[in-house]
Design a protein that fits this description.
The protein has 501 residues and is mostly helical. It folds into 3 domains: 48 residues, no CATH class; 292 residues, Orthogonal Bundle (di-copper center containing domain from catechol oxidase), CATH 1.10.1280; 107 residues. The chain contains 18 helices and 8 strands. It has a two-stranded antiparallel ribbon with strand order 1-2. A hairpin with a 2-residue loop joins β1 and β2. α6 packs across α11, α12 runs antiparallel to α17 and α15 packs across α18. The protein is globular, with a radius of gyration of 26 Å. The structure holds 2-acetamido-2-deoxy-beta-D-glucopyranose (5 copies) and copper (II) ion. InterPro entries: Di-copper_centre_dom_sf, Tyrosinase/Hemocyanin, Tyrosinase_Cu-bd. Keywords: Copper, Metal-binding, Oxidoreductase, Signal. It holds the Pfam family Tyrosinase. It comes from Mytilus galloprovincialis (Mediterranean mussel). GO terms for molecular function: metal ion binding; tyrosinase activity.
Length: 501
């Protein structure tokens, strides 16, 4: 690395460190100046609140108007037009993000971008609506109290209604955070890829949200996964669902372990970038799949309440804390009141697919982008590199073509690619390959010492999927099928289980 860049990074980290002591905020931008990449830390002066570190705000202490823009009558009219709930001829099925078809993901991306590009209202339609979450009155109604659930349910519907005005069939998928939490390296999840919500290591540059801009001086859309905070686990969800009253899972009364708002705050912080700060969080489109998930949990919670004989539509806690959460306070969303948030009207026609689940006898990990971890009895997200490897293999299968150099280097014949059985693909004749592997060894796999191979000797490779799993376990780097095959050759050299071939 260029030493100047290194020094810059050290400076940035130092700034961040110092800033955390003095409780100042810095926002990191990277920009290209005279063809050189420069990383800049800008001090942000604001009363913005970090998730999980919220000082109680009251109406008497608004956030200095920094995050307010005046609403024109056209703005108000458009926002008002979004405040309705679905009916029986407008049923919404919200799936797990990884369960969407390619077309559904594409439609969602287009709808978001059509809103972002639509400047017939102030800012643009996406940002104007996202900004509702930031306006001081709404912010005070939405956070740090039992109305957290109801407020975000209505807000989510408004965004979904807006998206559906652009693409009729779109619903907001839920991001089952627990599928990522169960991974060894959650930042490698397929979610953080251009086909889904975009990258997680700084400015988002590729995919539907590449180079999105946010408001109020916060610049490029950015994420810094895993810096602080944590993801929601399946156990967190089970804890929440073990309770039976709204007041037991929300502020101000709920303990942290059962507190859905606090647990969700940790996810905001884990994502970092805009998501970390309440007033700008909704500018990141991952905000909506995250809230679709908390809403999905609340839906399940309310169904359980009904089964236990508790009426969720009259379960607003008596001890609600701040006055902005009192049942007859306005929600600051049209004329909706806080108490309206727990009514059934909003989600009566909103359905969620069951949260993906698997065990020894049942596999409900029903997507190409997740798999069952039987030992944990959990569905678990696939990583970007796993998907990439599988992609390449399926392309090869489809093309039904074998590169000549591979044929020459030992594939029995081209038929092996078109056979149904995975293990057919492993027909490799050793004699010729071992010769090549010595070279391969150094070119591609110098990282793997003999010891690290030895440590994995117990792995049984019988199908091509075993190979993928083993391979992605050993390396996280970008690869292609040729490398994968060379890797197989490498394994051969170490006398890996070959008998069955
Ligand atoms: C932030 O506040 C400091 C001290 O109040 C001031 O000197 C600085 O100019 C402000 N920066 C911006 C970008 O407003
Ligand atoms: C149901 O909702 C759709 C979409 O908002 C609306 O066009 C339609 O008039 C509604 N139908 C009824 C019966 O309310
Ligand atoms: C939105 O605008 C950008 C920039 O002009 C353009 O590249 C993109 O195709 C537009 N998106 C849609 C969905 O119209
Ligand atoms: C696995 O889950 C299914 C579906 O919930 C359930 O019917 C079955 O009993 C479970 N099996 C085991 C071994 O726990
Ligand atoms: C997998 O293949 C699809 C379709 O060809 C492509 O759009 C996608 O980007 C690929 N994903 C990865 C992670 O390589
Ligand atoms: Cu919020």
């Amino acid at each position: 690395m260029d030493t100047r860049i290194l020094i810059l990074w050290i400076t940035v980290y130092l700034c961040l460190f110092v800033s955390s002591i003095q409780s100042k905020s810095f926002f990191i931008h990277s920009s290209v100046v005279n063809g050189k990449k420069k990383i800049v830390a800008t001090e942000v002066n604001s009363t913005a609140s970090s998730f999980g570190n919220t000082r109680p705000k009251t109406a008497a202490e608004p956030n200095s108007g920094k995050f307010e823009i005046p609403l024109s009558s056209a703005d108000q009219e458009w926002l008002g037009s979004l405040l309705y709930h679905p009916n029986e001829s407008d049923i919404r099925l919200r799936k797990e993000y990884r369960q969407l078809s390619e077309k559904e993901r594409g439609d969602l991306n287009v709808a978001f971008n059509l809103l972002k590009n639509d400047t017939s209202v102030s800012l643009n339609k996406y940002d104007l609506l996202a900004n509702i979450h930031a306006r001081s009155s709404a912010n005070a109604n939405a956070h740090q109290g039992p109305n957290f659930m109801g407020w975000h349910r209505v807000f989510l519907l408004m965004m979904e209604n807006a998206l559906r005005k652009k693409v009729k069939t779109v619903t907001i998928p839920y991001w089952d955070v627990t599928l990522d939490e169960a991974m060894d390296k959650p930042y490698s999840s397929i979610i953080w890829s251009p086909d889904f919500i975009g990258s997680g290591d700084g400015v988002i540059k590729k995919g539907a949200f590449g180079h999105w801009q946010t408001q109020f001086g916060y610049g490029n859309l950015m994420r810094f996964l895993g810096g602080q905070g944590k993801l929601m686990s399946k156990e967190n969800v089970e804890d929440i669902l073990s309770k039976s009253r709204l007041g037991e899972i929300t502020n101000p009364a709920a303990e942290k372990k059962f507190n859905i708002e606090e647990i969700h705050n940790d996810v905001h912080v884990w994502i970092g970038g805009q998501m970390k700060t309440i007033e700008i969080a909704a500018f990141d489109p991952i905000f909506y799949p995250l809230h679709s998930f908390t809403d999905c949990i609340w839906t399940e919670f309310r169904e359980q309440q009904k089964a236990k004989g508790i009426d969720p539509t009259s379960d607003y806690p008596e001890f609600y804390g701040r006055s902005t959460h009192s049942p007859f306070a306005p929600m600051s969303l049209g004329s909706v009141m806080v108490i309206d948030g727990i009514s059934d009207i909003w989600n009566q026609y909103v359905q969620y697919t069951p949260r993906p689940f698997c065990n020894e006898t049942y596999n409900g990990c029903n997507s190409l982008y997740m798999k069952c971890d039987i030992s944990k009895r959990k569905c678990i997200s696939k990583s970007r590199s796993e998907v990439e490897i599988e992609n390449q293999s399926s392309k090869l299968k489809k093309d039904d073509k074998v590169p000549t150099d591979l044929v020459n280097s030992g594939f029995k014949n081209s038929e092996s690619f078109s056979k149904e059985s995975d293990s057919e693909m492993l027909y490799i004749s050793n004699r010729q390959l071992i010769k090549r592997s010595a070279v391969v060894n150094y070119r591609h796999f110098t990282k793997l010492s003999e010891n690290s191979i030895a440590a994995h000797k117990v792995v049984t490779i019988t199908t091509i999927s075993d190979v993928y799993q083993f391979y992605s376990y050993l390396t996280d780097s970008h690869t292609d099928l040729i490398n994968l095959l060379l890797f197989l050759i490498y394994l051969n050299q170490f006398h890996f289980k070959q008998e069955q071939y």
